[in-house]
């Protein structure tokens, strides 16, 4: 789906997207209805990548990469739990600068920052439970730089979508997001590794740019 979306956007976005939900997570399929959806666009230097569901840096991005290292007998949500276990062994705590729309940039030490058009990634992790894919806005989850035990405590709440108000994280909305880092960032988009070593990401919403048939 991610590859087809990027092909459609680069070709002008005139054709509709149809989705057969046979993936391991089917996060975008959970949103499916016919109509026009927003699309996220990530620019990193000369490179551009589009996403339909969401993107992130930090814990989630490394988890997406670790899904490919999980034994083949684990599928679906089991594969994501296996990737979670692998990621707990080693994950980065990032120091980034973030700007939302025309607001003042701010420094953030983060274990994970996700920019979402949909509600869920990893099959069942409801990172932005109030996100809507057709409201012209991106929803952000910014998790503080916390340790393994605190992440394990957060996971059940994120699975339920009951983490709003937790002092270790922030949920906000924006049309444009800029993320800068002195260290290279691994970037995941729609479950795929979009960039291996980005230092500046410019992320924006393209309202209603994707026509979906469901």
Q: Quick recap of the structure?
A:
With 214 residues, the chain is of the alpha+beta class. It has helices at 2-10, 59-67, 77-89, 148-160; strands at 17-18, 35-44, 47-51, 54-58, 94-100, 106-116, 138-144, 169-174, 176-189, 192-213.
Mean pLDDT: 86
- CATH-assigned fold name: Tumour Suppressor Smad4
- Please state the structural category: alpha+beta
CATH hierarchy: architecture? Sandwich
Model regions low in confidence, pLDDT < 50 over at least 5 residues: none
What is the helix/strand order? HEEEEHHEEEHEEE
Globular, elongated, flat, extended or rod-shaped: what is the shape?
globular
Helix content estimate: 10-25%
How many strands appear in the DSSP assignment? 10
Number of helices: 4
Instruction: Specify the CATH class.
Output: Mainly Beta
List keywords for this structure.
about 40% strand, alpha+beta, 4 helices, Tumour Suppressor Smad4, globular, ten-stranded mixed beta sheet, about 210 residues
